[in-house]
Design a protein that fits this description.
It is globular and about 50 Å long. The chain has a six-stranded antiparallel β-sheet with strand order 4-3-6-1-2-5. Strands 9-8-7-10-11 form a five-stranded parallel β-sheet, sandwiched between helices. Strand 7, helix 2 and strand 8 form a beta-alpha-beta unit. Helix content is about 25%, strand content about 35%. The chain has about 240 residues and is α/β, with parallel strands linked by helices. The chain contains six helices and eleven strands. The longest helix is centred in the middle third of the chain and has 13 residues. This is Dihydropteridine reductase.
């Protein structure tokens, strides 16, 4: 396993609780849209066994051509030791990344794509939208729906509707409006539905989509194949 040690080159305060850490990109490090990585703080591998308290599974919110590895995360006032340590890091300090993989690359199957996310989960979809806006081949259109009760919506410069490019973006701040819109989107029985958020969020969205006869193969989760069965057990067995 290759571990890349790299420096923080910029810290962006997206909202009072959300930060993006931009990391220098090692020469031989590459990734695709929808990727996640293991993001670790100094000392995580100092002992005989890795200190899992200093490692988190994070989405990469940038594309390779942006030449920085973006890690966007919410850090609340009351937070874990990992987040508290991360909050105190400064530009120039080192972090580690390893085991990078994408479960949700943009499928180009001449279908409509729907991106369903909660809060900072939008970070996973930022690279998919940028990739689509640069090259729309074999994607009919994309619609993004994000719920954030804080009303401090992220990446509004990217998630801005562009009708000429067949991209629409919608933000809501309450569950009622959100799930009503999910139901409306699910009227497209041939669409592809990507979901990113907490496990509870995934379960509720899958239930809403399945009730509208959306099939398991139309639902993309940011989960490894072995974890998918936890969310779609009956369907995957058929």
């Amino acid at each position: 396993m290759q571990i890349y040690w790299t420096k923080i080159n910029k810290i962006i305060e997206e909202t009072p609780e959300v930060r993006t850490y931009l990391l220098d990109r090692p020469e031989d490090f590459t990734w695709q849209e929808g990727s996640h990585t293991h993001f670790a703080l100094e000392g995580f591998n100092a002992g005989e066994k890795p200190n899992r308290g200093l490692i988190r599974h994070m989405s990469i919110s940038t594309l390779p051509h942006e030449n920085s590895i973006g890690i966007t995360t919410r850090i609340k006032e009351q937070c874990s030791e990992f987040k508290a340590t991360l909050r105190n890091l400064e530009v120039g300090q080192e972090v580690a990344i390893f085991k990078t993989h994408s479960n949700v690359p943009l499928k180009r199957e001449d279908k409509n794509v729907y991106l369903l996310s909660s809060g900072v989960g939008l970070a996973t979809f930022r690279p998919l939208v940028l990739d689509y806006l640069e090259r729309a081949d074999n994607v009919n259109q994309i619609h993004s729906l994000n719920i954030d009760s804080s009303k401090q919506f992220l990446f509004t410069n990217v998630f801005e509707s562009a009708p000429d490019k067949k991209f629409t973006s919608q933000f809501v701040d309450n569950r009622k409006d959100y799930y009503e819109e999910v139901k409306n989107l699910a009227e497209d029985k041939d669409g592809l539905f990507y979901i990113v958020g907490s496990d509870e969020f995934l379960v509720h969205n899958i239930k809403a989509l399945r009730e509208q006869s959306i099939q398991p193969e139309q639902i993309m989760l940011d989960k490894r194949e072995q974890s998918m069965a936890e969310f779609l057990p009956v369907e995957l067995a058929n």
